[in-house]
Amino acid sequence: MKVLVVGGGGREHAIAWKLKKSHLLKELYCAPGNAGTAGLATNVSISPKNLGALAVWAVEHEIDLTVVGPEVPLAEGIVDVFNEHGLRIFGPTKKAAELESSKAFAKDVMQKAGVPTPAAEIFSDYESALAYLQQVGAPVVVKADGLAAGKGVTVAMEMEDAEAALKECMLEDRFGTSGSRVVIEEYIDGREASVMAIIAGDTILPLVVSQDYKRLEEEDKGPNTGGMGAISPTPVVDDSQVESLVDKIFVPVLKELRTRGIEYLGFLYAGVIVNSAGESKVLEFNCRLGDPETQVLLPRMQSDLLQVLDAAVRGTLSSHELRWSREAAATVVASSRGYPGDCDDGKTIDGLFDGDDDVMVFQAGTSVSESGEIVSKGGRILVVSALGNSTAKALEKAYEGMSKITFDGMHFRKDIGGGAA
Ligand code: GLY
After folding, report:
1. Same structural domain, 218 and 255
2. pLDDT digits (tens, 9 = 90+) for 232-253
3. Residue nearest atom 3 of ligand 1, based on CA coordinates
4. Residue 150, ligand 1, Cβ within 6 A
């Protein structure tokens, strides 16, 4: 098969790495890819936001299957555009992707479906939002309604942080139109796990559970990021609990979507928080694989990902099941100085090494300079993932791999796998 992966981060490098192992694969392309995917696939210099150009390119190159990594093209309707061109693509339609692109839509679906989720109110007007915030007090969670690259959620322990977050969203336009509507949500004290599945209509194939570490700094300090590391399995949600979470979360949500005329095809990610009493609630949905969770899930996956995704698009997913390594996996993210704010690009990355199936380097924000060096480009630059017979061993190997790599302004958390997330 000729396969196109849309996206250019660490998740897409990991997807390309996994697809490359399939005996069904003939040619692999990434649009736009990065310096890491260039070693596995042909990078195609088309932006993931340029849906029309991607579709025309895919028709011209007779692409058999497209796999979409990031949320932005899904939210903008890449699946609808590819379907209109008669192209086969794995991902949800624009309407289904609203589960991620509108937190208000997701909340409404969850409430109607009876899925446990923190209480919330939605506001489009700053004065009413502020009055509500002052009524409920801190701790409280303020979320930009739309997409914000993992940076639009503020867990405010103090009122002044909540009010500042509200201002950033609604008055200062930090997230553009994504923040013109906000969701103000009940704060839940607990630990988070990432529960994902491959979905095609009624068929739900759950992935093993993972946990990401969202704060920039150790001990759960600093701003929220897209994720600074991940482990799988996680003590927060045992793999044996997955079936009951599928029944409690995915089954009713898919049923509720169907009542709205929406069939779901794609990855679906539930961010689940578990409190000290063991009760779980869904904080959010993503319509894609997590980043950096993918970089621990795919190393553990023994099944042929391409075969499974192809079956999902063909409507034969129910005859497949997923097989997993019993080994644990860990990944550590290296980011640039300034992340999650503005970063300096163009820093030479030294010590990059060819990984294997035990210790892997997945590049994220990298490009090749005019002089042929691999340089930084963006916030999260690369991850090192590793497998091990325990989480501790996987972490030791990931950190050992990371210790070989350097670039100016490089930052990574030293406590991935610990209690703070
Ligand atoms: N790591 C969180 C996310 O992918 O949304």
Report:
1. yes
2. 999 999 888 999 999 999 999 9
3. 290
4. yes
